[in-house]
Task: inverse folding
């Protein structure tokens, strides 16, 4: 079928709206009409060649939400007309997948960053030209996307569908890090370094879990203001003060839980240095392979934990509907993070995001 999609033709180039051909669905695949697609820094990192992915031309987008249009012959999970959120894909057969940890799938790159289906077949073309698609098994910067049955999540149909796409990656990453990984007890303290989409979603998760000391750390005053409005009890501008000392003073010795949502070795060191004995630091910020950090080994020896977290340790079919329910109850107002843009303004939306003027842009085809 013919679709409209935003194509990158050169590394770090602009998005170009093109008419493409989308492959027919395989027996285990689903065609989704996109209602909204969030823009994530992972999309921009892929655009800029910071990931081991095929070179352009490519279609990115991995926070899509929409309506099921067609399903393959073996699909039983969803049917045409269902509302779905698209998320990351996994193989379902490796040891982490079988252990209920699909975000640590041994074949994660093959299913999400390969530029084609795992068997090498392509999903997008412009005439005779192959366009690398299948990004996160969706490439949802388009009006229609082809997904696998495994990475579509059925959601209730009484919620505005266009806002739900970010639940598939950025929002579930932050909220899940708190709710699925850290499991803070009511009354706990937590410090969050970097309050973009992931960090603010973590903050919302901390509110849901009953944390009573929630410290947001950033260098953008506007984001710190938003963090306060969403439930932060304290904010720290790291460009004006030493965040480690500030957190130690606020908590009287360290935050029980800390999240690094920036992807910066210096910030990770600060996050670990904020921990008391038996405290836990979760690393969410994405970095290039080979990035190293220096930590105080004595601090780690004294019961502190540093733990990497991918996609919020989420089982999307279970966790995303829970977040939607919390949103409907008014307890998880992630819609406060988003701003909508027409699909043909994708380059303007990216510019606004890169300049820090918007936290989570969502494209509406």
Result:
């Amino acid at each position: 079928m013919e679709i409209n999609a935003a194509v990158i033709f050169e590394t770090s180039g602009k998005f170009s709206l093109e008419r493409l051909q989308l492959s027919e669905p395989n027996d285990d695949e689903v065609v989704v009409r996109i209602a909204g697609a969030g823009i994530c820094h992972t999309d921009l990192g892929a655009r800029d060649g910071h990931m081991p992915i095929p070179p352009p031309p490519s279609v990115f987008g991995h926070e899509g939400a929409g309506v099921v249009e067609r399903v393959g012959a073996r699909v039983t999970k969803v049917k045409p007309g269902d509302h779905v959120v698209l998320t990351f894909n996994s193989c379902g057969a490796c040891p982490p997948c079988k252990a209920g940890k699909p975000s640590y799938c041994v074949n994660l790159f093959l299913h999400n960053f390969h530029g084609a289906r795992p068997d090498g077949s392509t999903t997008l073309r412009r005439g005779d030209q192959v366009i690398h698609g299948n990004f996160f098994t969706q490439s949802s910067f388009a009006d229609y996307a082809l997904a696998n049955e495994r990475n579509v999540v059925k959601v209730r149909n009484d919620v505005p569908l266009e806002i739900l796409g970010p639940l598939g990656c950025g929002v579930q990453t932050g909220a899940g890090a708190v709710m699925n990984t850290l499991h803070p007890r009511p009354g706990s303290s937590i410090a969050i370094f970097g309050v973009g989409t992931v960090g603010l979603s973590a903050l919302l998760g901390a509110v849901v879990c009953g944390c009573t000391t929630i410290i947001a750390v950033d260098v953008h005053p506007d984001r710190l203001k938003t963090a306060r409005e969403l439930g932060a009890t304290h904010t720290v501008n790291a460009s004006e003060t030493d965040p480690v000392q500030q957190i130690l003073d606020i908590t009287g010795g360290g935050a029980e839980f800390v999240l690094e949502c920036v992807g910066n070795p210096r910030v990770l060191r600060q996050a670990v240095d904020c921990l008391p004995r038996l405290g836990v630091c979760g690393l969410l910020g994405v970095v290039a392979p080979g990035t190293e950090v220096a930590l105080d080994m004595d601090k780690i020896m004294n019961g502190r934990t540093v733990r990497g977290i991918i996609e919020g340790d989420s089982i999307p079919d279970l966790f995303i509907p829970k977040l939607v329910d919390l949103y409907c109850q008014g307890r998880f107002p992630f819609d406060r993070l988003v701003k909508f843009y027409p699909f043909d303004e994708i380059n303007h939306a990216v510019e606004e995001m890169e300049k820090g003027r918007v936290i989570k842009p969502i494209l509406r085809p």
Summary: The mean pLDDT is 97. The longest helix spans residues 170-182.
